[in-house]
Structure formats: structure tokens, C-alpha cells
Design a protein that fits this description.
Helix content: 25-40%
Number of domains: 2
CATH topology of the largest domain: Uracil-DNA Glycosylase, subunit E
Order of helices and strands: HHHHHEEHHEHEHHEEHH
Structural class: alpha/beta
Distance between the termini: 185 Å
CATH class of the largest domain: Alpha Beta
Strand content: 5-15%
Shape: rod-shaped
Number of strands: 6
Radius of gyration: 68 Å
CATH superfamily of the largest domain: Uracil-DNA glycosylase-like domain
Length: 372
């Protein structure tokens, strides 16, 4: 009875430790020898055997000895008397299967200092994209009906052929005046001056303050023709005023001539914007006025003052530096003509005044010869 109670207690202990199956596979038959009650083996048993001198568990009850026989069958593991120390050491044998290793950081991972990952922007906050409706082309449905050409149906049919359009020209609407125009060729001084003041043949009349007709002695033998009025001339209505006009007066005085004894005019009667050079069609529009002035004065000598005047009167593009100190013949009447520098050019290039003095001496020599 005591042995059975001890075996049951041992089996329950083994079952509670969870090694009952291992004991059944590896535990040998019960041992018959009784070791010393005070000596407990703490050495590791062999792989498949338990030492013979292993003492039973001390339960304060006298052990019950079973007769040993040669062919006795081994006791079942739950009824064998095996010391607890021996079984405990046997459980740590290298043959024992290790417990499963939990996955790393499953329950015991330390807290991390890294910030949580930032989700991509607008991953869940944006509403689903919807394509906008197509924009219709402009005036697809709201375009007005086409406007018929004027007089398409209002004019009665005509048997006359349509006029053939002519190519447009720069001054087609404003034909230049010519000397053959009887209204200019027959004008006297007053009528000619009034005609010049009312001229709109070119676009210079849109920007002028007033026309600059001419000034001086209308019975003189010497006629000076300049280029075009400047700002001072446009304001006062008289040619060659301001600094350039004062220099011209001094130049005439150097050869014993006074301003009041000669006649002074320009090839263009209106000031070009910003004092630019006159354009060819502007020179053509004023040419009839200039020719009528020459015809009325009948000078014995013409002085072309400046490059523009010399090129227009001589119909050449030769530089004025090569036209100096020469005597040309102008028009059908073969009037002598001499070219010289413009006073405004001499104000910009004072070094050319020496050559201008040579021109004045040549003019004085020519006027002296014409008087004899």
C-alpha cells in the first residue's frame, strides 16, 4: 500500500513537470539495491542508464522490497521508484529537445526612439480625382452668323465692268507739286507764301508749328539755300536762327555781306520731327516752291549750305568734302552754285572752320567776278 501510494505521488509529480513521456522512453527498470539514505547522487547520468546506487525519494516511510528474479519484467515508469534529483538532472540531458525560441522582439522588444514612419502626403485625405468636363471650343455654338459683304444684295446689277485696282504707292494720295503746275508757276510772292503755309502734301504738316518760307532781300544777287528748319526756326518762322543762324551771320560779315542783303531759305519748308534729315518724298513735295522762289529772285550765285541741300540741288550723292571749292551750274539757266558746310556741322566739328574759311574766300572771289 505504501509503495503504491509513493508511486502514484511520483507519477503525479512527473506529470505535473511535463516529462512523463520522456520517462517512459528512457527510464530503465527499478533498481533493487538500496543506497545510503543520506547520500544523494548529483552527477549527470549516462546517456541511457541511471546509476544503480540511486537512492529512492525519502518519504519518511520504510521502503518495501520486492523479490528480484532473473526474468522479472520491468515496472512501468509510473510505478518505478526513481529519485527526483536524478530525474531532474536527466531532464537537462543534451538529448532533451530545447523549448521553442520565441520570435525576436515579439513581446519583449524595448521601446524605440525612432519617429514613426510618415505616411505619404494625401494618401487618404485627397478625394478621388474626377476629370473635369471637356471645354467646348470657343464660339462652337454661340458664333454669330457670318456678316454678308456690304451691298451684296442691295445694289442692282450693273453691266459696267468693275474697276481694276491699282498698286498703292507711298505718296499716291498726295502727289508732289511740280514747276509745271500752273497754280505754282504763276504765283507771286504773297500767293506763294500763302500756298506754302496751307500745304499738306506730306506728313510734315502734322508735326510742324508753322512753315518757314524764307527771309531777306528778294532783289539780291546771292541766294543761300539750307536743308530744313530746326526747333528754333519752327518756333519763330524764320530760317537760320539760334546758334547756327548767328554763326552764319558772322560768316557773311567776314566777307563784307550782311544778312539783310541776301535771301535765305530751305529746300524743305516744314521741320522734320526730332531734326532728322528730310526724306526724298518730302524734298519732292517742296521742290516746286523752291524752284518758284529761285525763278522770282533770279540770283547770280546760289550757295548750297549743307550736305542735304547740295545733294538735292545737284542731284548727286558725292560727299560734300569733295564738292567744296568748285563752281557748278544749276538748272536750265546755268546759275553758278557753290557748296559749303552747314553752320550746325561747324558747331559740332570746330576743326572744320578752317576749311569753311576757304569756302568763304572762294565765295567772295566768285561774287566779285560776277559783279564785273
Amino acid at each position: 500500500m505504501t509503495n503504491i501510494s509513493h508511486n502514484n505521488l511520483h507519477a503525479q509529480y512527473l506529470k505535473a513537470m511535463g516529462i512523463q513521456s520522456w520517462v517512459r522512453r528512457h527510464l530503465p527498470p527499478a533498481l533493487t539495491e538500496e543506497p545510503s539514505p543520506t547520500k544523494v547522487s548529483t552527477t549527470m547520468p549516462d546517456k541511457h542508464t541511471i546509476p544503480e546506487n540511486t537512492p529512492p525519494v525519502n518519504t519518511n516511510e520504510p521502503p518495501v522490497h520486492q523479490p528480484a528474479t532473473a526474468n522479472a519484467a520491468p515496472l512501468p515508469p509510473e510505478e518505478s521508484q526513481v529519485p527526483i534529483r536524478a530525474i531532474t538532472n536527466a531532464a537537462s540531458s543534451p538529448l532533451d529537445e530545447p523549448p521553442p525560441i520565441p520570435p525576436p522582439f515579439e513581446t519583449a522588444s524595448p521601446p524605440s526612439n525612432e519617429p514613426p514612419p510618415i505616411p505619404p502626403p494625401f494618401e487618404t485625405a485627397l478625394p478621388p480625382y474626377e476629370e473635369p468636363p471637356p471645354i467646348p471650343p470657343p464660339f462652337e455654338t454661340a458664333s454669330p452668323p457670318p456678316i454678308p459683304p456690304p451691298f451684296e444684295t442691295a445694289l442692282p446689277p450693273s453691266d459696267e465692268p468693275l474697276p481694276i485696282p491699282q498698286p498703292a504707292t507711298a505718296n499716291a494720295a498726295l502727289p508732289p507739286l511740280s514747276l509745271e503746275d500752273s497754280t505754282v508757276a504763276e504765283l507771286d510772292w504773297d500767293s506763294l507764301e500763302n500756298r506754302v503755309a496751307a500745304c499738306t502734301a506730306c506728313d510734315l504738316h502734322k508735326t510742324r508749328t508753322q512753315t518757314v518760307f524764307g527771309v531777306g532781300n528778294r532783289q539780291t544777287d546771292l541766294m543761300l539755300i539750307g536743308e530744313a528748319p530746326g526747333a528754333d526756326e519752327d518756333e519763330q518762322g524764320e530760317p537760320f536762327v539760334g546758334r547756327a543762324g548767328q554763326l552764319l551771320t558772322d560768316m557773311l560779315y567776314a566777307i563784307d555781306l550782311k544778312r539783310e542783303t541776301v535771301y535765305i531759305t530751305n529746300v524743305v519748308k516744314c521741320r522734320p520731327p526730332e531734326n532728322r534729315n528730310p526724306e526724298p518724298h518730302e524734298l519732292t513735295c517742296c521742290n516746286a516752291f523752291l524752284q518758284r522762289q529761285i525763278e522770282l529772285i533770279k540770283p547770280k550765285l546760289i550757295i548750297a549750305v549743307g550736305r542735304v541741300a547740295a545733294h538735292h540741288l545737284l542731284e548727286t550723292d558725292t560727299p560734300i568734302s569733295k564738292l567744296r571749292l568748285q563752281r557748278f551750274k544749276y538748272g536750265e539757266t546755268k546759275i553758278p552754285l557753290i557748296a559749303t558746310y552747314h553752320p550746325a556741322y561747324l558747331l559740332r566739328r570746330p576743326t572744320e572752320k578752317r576749311q569753311s574759311w576757304q569756302d568763304l574766300q572762294f565765295i567772295y572771289q566768285t561774287t566779285t567776278e560776277l559783279k564785273t
